[in-house]
Amino acid sequence: MFSRVFVDCKRGYGESVKKEVRRILGEHGLKAMKNPKKADLAILIGGDGTVLRNHSNIRCPILGINPGDSVGYYMKSGPKEMREHIGKLICGKQGRDYFLHEMMRLETRVNGKLLPYLALNDVLVSPVYTRRIFESRLRAGNSSSLEKGSGIIVYTPAGSNAFAHSSGAKRLRYDYPEFGVTEVSPYSGRLKRGEMHTERGVSVECLSREGEVCIDGQEDQLRRLRKGDVVSVKRHSVPARIIGFSKRFK
After folding, report:
1. Domains in the chain and their CATH numbers?
2. I need a labelling partner for 156 at 20 to 30 A (CA). Which of 28, 53, 113, 174 fits?
3. Does the predicted TM-score (pTM) go above 0.90?
């Protein structure tokens, strides 16, 4: 049973749904919280981008509600079902009325300094301009390779359904134990032969004059790189917990 609920939506999108969620919570004697760090349930209204922008600061389970016009892989409720679903979360039982699905997240460092954003989908290391080729040194375990292409994507199992898949990676089950590495438009290097999967950390050294690293495709989660900068990515110790209403996340 959840009692401390944080509610938020994308600015200018989903406001009417947000108001209705607050009314539903009020019917159960609950008032929406403003601080997600003190909540035991977060309700995020919008598309997947809303989850990708907010999950780094959320440790409690997340219910995604899609108002209807966005991509919503992580959004397992909508305006028609949300009253029933919220009732199940407040009054129901985990494993019967709802399910908590643990999603791998990735943490990223640049030259050893931890970035404040976790990746639920992917970490992209790329040139600043897509018309330029990106040269890098990829290290994974005991192997090292020189890579040339349009950018390296380090992706989670859930993220394999997004940008990585459009770049040729196979879709993985959300609970697959390893994360993947692939390249956008590979020209030469190890990744030209295909994607790789690993449980261990990987690093990408920028050999081009400049580049950038972007977390989950969010413009405000981007850092510029210079030649010699090293981006290190590994599995984060705390997964995201996304709420669904079936045993398998799909």
Report:
1. 5-97 (3.40.50.10330), 106-235 (2.60.200.30)
2. 113
3. yes
